[in-house]
C-alpha cells in the first residue's frame, strides 16, 4: 500500500475513533404550561412540564450530553436551573437570572450541557419569580458508567420522591405578598410527589433505591418508612459510608439516596414525612405497597425525632454521621478518597452572616449587609461584553459581616473569586430559623456544622478526612457551618439560600470566577443560540476565547 493511502486510512481511523469516543446525547422537548394541581386537596394554578407534576425524569449516565428544548407557554418569563449539575466551563447554561436572559412567553430556548464527571441525585426547577412554589421541577438521575463499580448491588427499581412544604395561595399571590414587603408565613402542609395511592410498589425480598429531594419553600423535613430501615448510599453526588437510619432529616434543596429492602410481611406500609423545627408540626403520609400483599398499613406511625433545641442537636449529630466512602469510585475510576482536600492550604476565608431587615418599610434578606437585586441584563452577559461598570460593582460585600448586618444595602451582589484558589467559606446564622445554602457550578466539602459562633480555633474540629462532597449545606439557628472548595470552574456562579422567599428577597450572591487566560481550556464562549437582552442587545460581540 502506498504512503498516501496509508495516510488516508490513518486519518479515517482517527476520525472514526473521534466519533466513537464522543459521549452520547439525550434529547428532550418540554412544553411548560399552567395546569390545575391539588397537592393538598385545594385546586390551584400549577406549572406542568408535558402535562406532568412533578416533571419528567432526566435519566442519564456520567458524561452524557443533555439537550432540552424548552417551550414557554406561560404568561411570564421563565428559566430552569439544573440544581447540582456543575456545568464545567459553561455557566451560560446555569439558568439563573444572573447568567441568562429569560425565555419569554411564547418563545423557546434549547439548553445544552454535559453531566461531566458526575453521578448522583439532582433536580431541575424554575428560578424565575415564585414559580418554584407552583411546581415546574423534576429529577435528574446521573448513573455511573458501566465499567466503574458502584458500592452496592443494582436495585430492583429506582423511585424519585419529591417532598417539602406547600402553600395553597398560589405562586402569583405569594409573589404579591413578598413584593408588598411581607413574609409568606407558615406553609399549609407537606406534600409527597403528586399524592397518588399507592406511591410505589415493592416485591417481597427485593431492594429498591429511593432518591429523596426536598423541593419545599422553607421547611426542613424528616423522612421515615414504617417498619423498614434505610441504608444511606449517596448524598448529592457522593457515595457515602453505608450507615443504617430509621429516619433522616432532609433540609430544603437537599437530595439523598437510600436503599430499602422489602423484607416485612407483604401488605401496605406508610412513608411518613414531617416538618422539622416549626412551632406546629406538619406531616403527610403515602402508601408503599407490596405486590400481592394483603392488608392495610398499620395506623401506628413511626415517631418523629425530637424537635426544638434537642432536635437540633439530634440533627447535627446525624449530619456528622454522613461520611465520604473513601474506597468507592464516583464518576471516575479512582477512589473518592484519593483526593486529599484536608492537606491543601487555605488561600482565602470568607465569613458570611445572614440577616433580615427593612428597606423602605419592606422586608429584605441579605448576606453581610448586602441584599441582592437582579439586574435587567444578566451579570454574566455584561461581564462578557465588558460592560460590567454600567450595571454593577464588584465586591460590595466584604469578607466579614459589618457590625450591624441588618442594615441592608439593596444592590447586585457580585464577589470576585480568584481562579483556582482553595477557599474556606463560613456561614454564621444568628437567626432563630434554619438556613440552607447551595452553590452552583461546584461541589464542596462540608467540613463542620456546630452551635455558637465561628472563630479560627474552631478549625481543629473540622473533618479533614472524609467529609462529604456536596452542593448544599444547612446552618442551624444560632450556629455556623464551614465548607471548603477550589474555585476551578470559570463562570458566574450563584450562591443562594434554597429557601425561595429569602432568595427572592435578596439572600444570595454571585461569584465571578474569571480565568486570566481567556482560553477555551477554561471556559466556553457565549453559545450561538444564547438570547441577548438589556444593555448588551445590539452590542458587537467580544473577541471569542481561543484554545
Characterise this structure:
The chain has 547 residues and is mainly β. Helix content is 10%, strand content 37%. The protein is built from 5 helices and 33 strands. The protein has helices spanning 3-21, 171-179, 308-321, 379-384, 500-504; strands at 25-37, 44-49, 58-61, 65-72, 80-83, 108-114, 120-126, 138-143, 158-166, 189-192, 200-202, 207-214, 220-225, 230-235, 238-239, 244-245, 248-250, 255-261, 268-276, 283-290, 348-359, 362-367, 370-372, 409-411, 414-418, 422-429, 435-439, 444-451, 469-470, 472-475, 479-486, 491-497, 508-514. Mean pLDDT is 94; it is low at 1-19.
Task: Tell me the Rg in angstroms.
Answer: 23 Å
Low-confidence stretches: 1-19
Q: Please state roughly what percent of the residues sit in beta strands, choosing from under 5%, 5-15%, 15-25%, 25-35%, 35-45% or over 45%.
A: 35-45%
Please identify the structural class as seen in this structure. mainly beta
Q: What gross morphology would you assign?
A: globular
Number of strands: 33
State the helicity in percent bands: under 10%
DSSP summary: helix tally? 5
Mean pLDDT: 94
- How far apart are the first and last residues' alpha carbons, in Å? 36 Å
Largest sheet: 7 strands, mixed
Amino acid at each position: 500500500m502506498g504512503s498516501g493511502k496509508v495516510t488516508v486510512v490513518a486519518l479515517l481511523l482517527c476520525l472514526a475513533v473521534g466519533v466513537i469516543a464522543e459521549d452520547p446525547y439525550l434529547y428532550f422537548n418540554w412544553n411548560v404550561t399552567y395546569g390545575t394541581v391539588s397537592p393538598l386537596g385545594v385546586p390551584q394554578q400549577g406549572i406542568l412540564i408535558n402535562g406532568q407534576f412533578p416533571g419528567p425524569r432526566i435519566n442519564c449516565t456520567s458524561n452524557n450530553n443533555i439537550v432540552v428544548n424548552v417551550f414557554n407557554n406561560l404568561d411570564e418569563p421563565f428559566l430552569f436551573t439544573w440544581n447540582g449539575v456543575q456545568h464545567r466551563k459553561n455557566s451560560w447554561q446555569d439558568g439563573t437570572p444572573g447568567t441568562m436572559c429569560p425565555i419569554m412567553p411564547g418563545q423557546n430556548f434549547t439548553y445544552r450541557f454535559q453531566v461531566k464527571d458526575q453521578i448522583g441525585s439532582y433536580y431541575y426547577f424554575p428560578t424565575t419569580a415564585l414559580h418554584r412554589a407552583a411546581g415546574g421541577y423534576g429529577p435528574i438521575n446521573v448513573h455511573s458508567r458501566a465499567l466503574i463499580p458502584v458500592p452496592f448491588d443494582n436495585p430492583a427499581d429506582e423511585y424519585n420522591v419529591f417532598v417539602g412544604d406547600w402553600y395553597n395561595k398560589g405562586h402569583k399571590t405569594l409573589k404579591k405578598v413578598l413584593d408588598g414587603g411581607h413574609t409568606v408565613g407558615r406553609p399549609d402542609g407537606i406534600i409527597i410527589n403528586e399524592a397518588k395511592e399507592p406511591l410505589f410498589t415493592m416485591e417481597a425480598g427485593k431492594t429498591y433505591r429511593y432518591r429523596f429531594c426536598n423541593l419545599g419553600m422553607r421547611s426542613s423535613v424528616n423522612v421515615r418508612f414504617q417498619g423498614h430501615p434505610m441504608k444511606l448510599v449517596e448524598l448529592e453526588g457522593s457515595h457515602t459510608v453505608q450507615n443504617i437510619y430509621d429516619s433522616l432529616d432532609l433540609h430544603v434543596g437537599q437530595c439523598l439516596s437510600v436503599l430499602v429492602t422489602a423484607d416485612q410481611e407483604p401488605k401496605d406500609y406508610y412513608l411518613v414525612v414531617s416538618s422539622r423545627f416549626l412551632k406546629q408540626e406538619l406531616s403527610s403520609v403515602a402508601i408503599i405497597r407490596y405486590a400481592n400483599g394483603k392488608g392495610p398499613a398499620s395506623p401506628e406511625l413511626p415517631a418523629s425525632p425530637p424537635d426544638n433545641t434537642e432536635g437540633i442537636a439530634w440533627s447535627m449529630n446525624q449530619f456528622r454521621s454522613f461520611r465520604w466512602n473513601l474506597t468507592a469510585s464516583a464518576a471516575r475510576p479512582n477512589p473518592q478518597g484519593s483526593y486529599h482536600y484536608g492537606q491543601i492550604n487555605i488561600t482565602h476565608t470568607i465569613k458570611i452572616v445572614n440577616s433580615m431587615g427593612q428597606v423602605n418599610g419592606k422586608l429584605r434578606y441579605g448576606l453581610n449587609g448586602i441584599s441582592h437585586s437582579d439586574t435587567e441584563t444578566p451579570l454574566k452577559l455584561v461581564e462578557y461584553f465588558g460592560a460590567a461598570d454600567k450595571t454593577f460593582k464588584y465586591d460590595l460585600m466584604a469578607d466579614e459581616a459589618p457590625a450591624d448586618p441588618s442594615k441592608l444595602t439593596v444592590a447586585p451582589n457580585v464577589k470576585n473569586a480568584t481562579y483556582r484558589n482553595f477557599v474556606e467559606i463560613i456561614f454564621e446564622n444568628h437567626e432563630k430559623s434554619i438556613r440552607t445554602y447551595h452553590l452552583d457550578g461546584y461541589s464542596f466539602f462540608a467540613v463542620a456544622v456546630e452551635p455558637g459562633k465561628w472563630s479560627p480555633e474552631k478549625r481543629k474540629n473540622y473533618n479533614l478526612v472524609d467529609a462529604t462532597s456536596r452542593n448544599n449545606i444547612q446552618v442551624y439557628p444560632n450556629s455556623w457551618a464551614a465548607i471548603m472548595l477550589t474555585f476551578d470552574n470559570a463562570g458566574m456562579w450563584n450562591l443562594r439560600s434554597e429557601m425561595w422567599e429569602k432568595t427572592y428577597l435578596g439572600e444570595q450572591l454571585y461569584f465571578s470566577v474569571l480565568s486570566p487566560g481567556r482560553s477555551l481550556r477554561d471556559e466556553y464562549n457565549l453559545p450561538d443560540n444564547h438570547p441577548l437582552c438589556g444593555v448588551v442587545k445590539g452590542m458587537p460581540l467580544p473577541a471569542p476565547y481561543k484554545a
